[in-house]
Design goal:
With 223 residues, the chain is α+β, with helices and mostly antiparallel strands. It has a single domain (7-219), classed as Glutaredoxin (3-Layer(aba) Sandwich), CATH 3.40.30. It has five helices and 14 strands. The protein has helices at residues 97-110, 114-119, 134-142, 155-164, 207-219, and strands at residues 7-10, 13-17, 30-31, 36-37, 55-57, 65-67, 73-75, 85-90, 121-126, 149-151, 173-174, 180-182, 188-191, 198-201. It has a six-stranded mixed β-sheet. A four-stranded antiparallel β-sheet has the order 2-1-12-11, with no helix packed on it. A two-stranded antiparallel ribbon has the order 3-4. A hairpin with a 4-residue loop joins strand 3 and strand 4 (36-37).
Length: 223
Amino acid sequence: MPGMGVAGARGRSAGRCLVAGLAALVLTAVAGCGSSAGPPVPAPAGGSPYQAHVVRLPFAKPAGVFTDTNGTPFDLNKDTAGHPTLLYFGYTHCPDVCPLTMASLGAAVNKLPRQLREAFRVVFITTDPHRDTPQRLQRWLAAFGKDFIGLTGSWRTISRAAKRLHVAAVKPRPTNSGDYRVTHGAQVFGFSPAGNQTYLFPAQTPTRDFGHDLPLLAKGVRP
């Protein structure tokens, strides 16, 4: 499967890191947890109004009831209904890809007009629920966006949501070498307000491209 991999880290220190992607639909492979990239995702045929190489996907928004950073239940479908939504699978101990992605998203979202900014739901689902408590998620996400939504839950709930979008997610566990191995996605999933259109923004999409493309996503413009 092109673009699939496993991310590993020991606590906050950087370890070997290959991020999980989407089979066949994504041609971007990230090594060193974002230090290098493979071939870019092809631009949609026929021209696209999007700056990023956005790919339209035949996947619906995953279902599931998680726990948010306030410790309250969060129904992913119900609580984002009617809102343009950005979804990312990652973990707070990730040394580079996750913070870089959330920083790019945060910078782009924070520059949007207030009404549009408040309409977006930026959702971060941890793939390391043992360490990523609601409190830790809240502290970590606050550095990128004060309204970003952090979710945790049972491994079954997390893995089912990831599988729905073909993101590789393996239950975290220590390795024989002492590393703590975690899998996560490198791409950002975008959902139209009606929830009937799903798009993929590839790994390393820059802030300027997010800034250009998010208003299009909010309007349901297709690539």
